[in-house]
Automatic annotation (TrEMBL):
This is Homoserine dehydrogenase. It comes from Dorea ammoniilytica. The keyword Oxidoreductase applies. Its cofactor is a metal cation. Its EC number is 1.1.1.3. It catalyses: L-homoserine + NADP(+) = L-aspartate 4-semialdehyde + NADPH + H(+). Residues 349-423 form the ACT domain. Pathway: Amino-acid biosynthesis; L-methionine biosynthesis via de novo pathway; L-homoserine from L-aspartate: step 3/3; Amino-acid biosynthesis; L-threonine biosynthesis; L-threonine from L-aspartate: step 3/5. Belongs to the homoserine dehydrogenase family. Keywords: Amino-acid biosynthesis, Methionine biosynthesis, NADP, Oxidoreductase, Threonine biosynthesis. PANTHER family: HOMOSERINE DEHYDROGENASE.
Amino acid sequence: MKTVKIGLLGLGTVGGGVYKLIERQKSEMVSKTGADVEIAKILVHNRNKKREGIDESLLTDQWKDIIEDKEIDIVVEVMGGIEPAKTIITEALKAGKNVVTANKDLLAVCGEDLLEIAAAHHVDLMFEAAVAGGIPIMRPLRQCLAGNEITEVTGIVNGTTNYILTKMFELGMSFEEALAKATELGYAEADPTADIEGLDAGRKVAIMATSAFHSKVVFDDVHIEGITKITAQDIKYAKEFDSVIKLIGIARNTESGIEACVYPMLLSSEHPLASVRNSFNAVFVHGDAVDDVMFYGRGAGEFPTASAVMGDIIDVIRDMVNGCTGRISNTCYRELPVKKCRDIRSKFFLRMQVENRPGVLASIASVFGEHKVSINKVVQKIITDGMAEVVIVTDAVKEYHMQDAQEELLRMPIVKEISSVIREY
C-alpha cells in the first residue's frame, strides 16, 4: 500500500486546519483514495514557537528541505503572498511534485504560467481553496460545468464586506461601527484594506473568469471599487427600492469581450444573492445548458478553507494512484479581449445635493440627455436650507457616458455635490 507524503508550507489558520483534517481523516484515506497519507515536513517561519498538538520533528524553516525531499509527493501551499510562494511552487512543479494551493494573490497574477509548468511536468496543480473558502466553485467551473458555454459568474466572494453591509442594512450601523464589529469577531484583519477596498474579491474574480471563459484574466484586468463610501442614506434608499446593497464580483463573457469588475451594487431582493447574509459567500453561474446555478456556504475560516484544500489533496492522491496526474492543467485555449471599464454598460443610482428651485431637474435631465443617459426614475424627498436631495436611477448606459455626465453636472452651480454613485444589477 502506497503512502503519499505531504510537505505543508505554512501553519497559520488554514495550515493548522489542514493539519488537523489530515490527522482526522487518516483512517479513511485508504478507502477514499487507495493510499495512506502522511505529513512529512512543515515549513514555518519560527521553529522555536510552541505549537500544541504538532510534532516538532516535522518542522523546518528551509523550504528547500521540502522540495529536495524525493519522498514528498504533494506540496500544500497555504502561506499566501506572491513571493516566496511563486518560487517554491515553481520549483516544486519542476521537481515533479503535485501542488495544492490556496493562494489567490499568486493565482490572480500568474496562475496560467504555473498551470503551464504543471502541464509540462505532468503533475497536478489544484486551487479550489483560492476562491470562496469551503464553497466548491473552481472544480465545478473546470469540470462539472465544462459542457457549458458559461456567460456569467457573479458572486459575493468576500465575507468581511458582506458582514459589514448586512449589519448596516439590518441593524442600521454606520460603516465604521460595522467594520469595528467585524474586526472584533475576527472577520476583518487588523488592516482590512484588501477586503473593504474590494482587492480580495478582485483577485477571486480574475481566477473565476479565467477558468469559466478559458481565457487569461489577471488581477490588473479587473475594475475594482470598495464599500467605504456606502452610507446609511444609501441603505435607506435601497430598502425603499426593495433592494439590498452587496459587494458583487462580476465576470461576463460578452460578444465584445470579457467584463471583470468588483463594486457595490443595488440588488433586487428577489435575486438569490440578496439573501446571502453576514460572512457567507455565494457564487451564481449562468451556462447555456445548465441555465442558472448557485453555490453557497462559508467563504473563509480555518475548517471551511481547509475542507477545500483537503478535497484537492484527495483528488491528487486519486490521480497518483491511477497514474493520471496532470489530466487537467491550463484550460486557457482562447485569447479573448478584456473590456475597459469605460465601455461596460451598467444601470446607475445617483444621489446628489442640488439647489431647490424651479428648473433644476430640467437642467439635470438635459445634461443626462446630452450624454446619452436615459433616466428611469427620479426621487426627491429631503429639502433643507434651500437644497434638495435628488436620487436618479438610470437605464443601462456605458460607463464613459455616465462619467462625462457627472463631470458636467459637477461644473454646474446648481449641483452642490454628487453624494453617491452605485451601480444596479
